[in-house]
Amino acid sequence: MFRKGELTQRAIVDQALYLACRVGLEALSFGSLAKQMQMSKSGIFSRFNSAQALQIEVIREYRRRFEKQVFYPGIAAPSVLPRLLAMFFHWTRHVTDSSGNGCFYISCAIEYASRSGAIRDELLAGAAAWREALVTCAQSAIKAGHLHCDSDAEQIVHEMYGLVLALHHNARFVRDPHSDMRAVHAFRRLIDGLQAASYESIYIPPYIACRR
Amino acid sequence: MFRKGELTQRAIVDQALYLACRVGLEALSFGSLAKQMQMSKSGIFSRFNSAQALQIEVIREYRRRFEKQVFYPGIAAPSVLPRLLAMFFHWTRHVTDSSGNGCFYISCAIEYASRSGAIRDELLAGAAAWREALVTCAQSAIKAGHLHCDSDAEQIVHEMYGLVLALHHNARFVRDPHSDMRAVHAFRRLIDGLQAASYESIYIPPYIACRR
After folding, report:
1. Is A83 on the interface with B (CB under 8 A)?
2. pTM assigned to the model
3. Which of A27, A173, B68, B97 is the most buried if burial means most Cβ atoms within 10 Å?
4. How far, in Å, CA of A89 to CA of A76, rounded?
5. What pLDDT is recorded for position B211?
6. Which among A22, A166, A178 has the least Cβ separation from residue B161?
């Protein structure tokens, strides 16, 4: 059970994340948030003390959601190549889900590309943890003989990132209805080219098969 | 020769583009611009009448620069596959050039993903013209027999976009010193896999060869 204060704090962070996905993390203001929450500005200020403290909380909340929607369902798939594929597919689903939020790490990466400080560090830590999980999984797929022994795990993850960034760009900005299909097609080409001959054909989770 | 009024207008747009690359197009204000230009706010207002008119001018100025730095040097390369490669390499160079601006189309795509209106339309028109030039070039490379006859030009361009987005993300946000090398490596893999057997080995422009 949560106390009322905690529930209010959670509701503020939820609303702040919703707003930040639309206007950017930097444009998040106590004023606009107070208006949306029908609270006083000082009521919000008393809970977070500074805009930066609120921004950090928003990033942490996003990280929890990302782990719940992408990381845990991904690593629940059978080891090892199917797991890498599941991580990719849950990620693509998250990027284009019906909330319309997109991937907060991707949008914040643009906003904080040329800045420094605690907010960029917090974002980078979350994104780096995800990248590391992908690299570890790709390395295991190479070790297990599912991917060619001369494959480069870091390079595979770099290219997976590119596909997800292209999906994010195409689905949200260009609004191309074929974005999903293009991402899956490119990923199949990437993995097919790297798959060790001894490993059986690529595993495509059922929900992605229906979306094609 | 330009008249003084035109020179002032150009200087304002230059400064506005510089600022917009750092804080976003939406955060561009007459106030901050006036401060940077040591002009009065009304002096800027009298030239552009609205924030939107200034934002549109900034996008048009970026489009002229993009054409000068990426499009024209790209299409000057020999037809057809070398031209596609040159377009890609000039694009990657633009994304990571020393100005630190990155690709304004990429950063604005995030900012205007969930918005509608004249600014998004102007951005989309510029980005779409570039995408179309790439697709046309890829189609010609397929017709000329430089790429496999069953290649899909739209898919190739989608994947090229992914590589440039990953480069932009990695070089600017993650600040990975291997970003350039990873982009070239991935592009080689993409084109090698699509290259018709009859076509000679891949052409890498000299400036990219030195950067590897």
Report:
1. no
2. 0.89
3. A173
4. 13
5. 44
6. A166
